[in-house]
Design goal:
It is a single chain. It is built from 5 helices and 2 strands; from the N terminus they run αββαααα. It is mostly helical. The chain has a domain of 75 residues. Strands 1-2 form a two-stranded antiparallel sheet. A hairpin with a 6-residue loop joins β1 and β2. The longest helix is centred in the middle third of the chain and has 19 residues. The radius of gyration is 29 Å and the shape is elongated.
Length: 115
């Protein structure tokens, strides 16, 4: 008979009741990554930024990833409507300053000469 907590977690057991085969149900919500070959200057900047924000380096790295990935998801999405396209273009060029263009006077349409 399996203990109740094993049934709730959905763990799979071998013949021995203390051997867990699959515990991915427990940790599906959290993942770990290892970053190799991180330049020392980057690590130092992360340490300083974490200290300034009162967080551990690990918490700071999670926060940076969360913010940047959410930001890129919003900015990398293609425009869905004409208003979205205008906004995307304006967001790109607005920091560069405006340009006043002179609109040429309009005249009658020329005859294309096709008969």
């Amino acid at each position: 008979m399996r203990p109740l907590w094993i049934k709730r977690l959905g763990l799979k057991l071998l013949a021995s009741p203390c051997a867990i085969i699959d515990s991915s149900d427990i940790i599906d919500g959290m993942a770990s990554i290892t970053i190799r070959q991180l330049p020392e200057t980057t690590k130092r900047k992360l340490r300083i930024r974490a200290a300034q924000n009162g967080r551990s380096m690990e918490q700071e790295a999670r926060e940076i990833l969360r913010i940047e990935l959410n930001k890129s998801a919003e900015t990398n999405r293609p425009p869905q409507t004409g208003k979205d396209l205008v906004k995307a273009i304006r967001d790109i060029f607005e920091p560069l300053g405006g340009v006043d263009l002179q609109i040429p006077p309009r005249g009658p349409i020329r005859d294309p000469g096709i008969r």
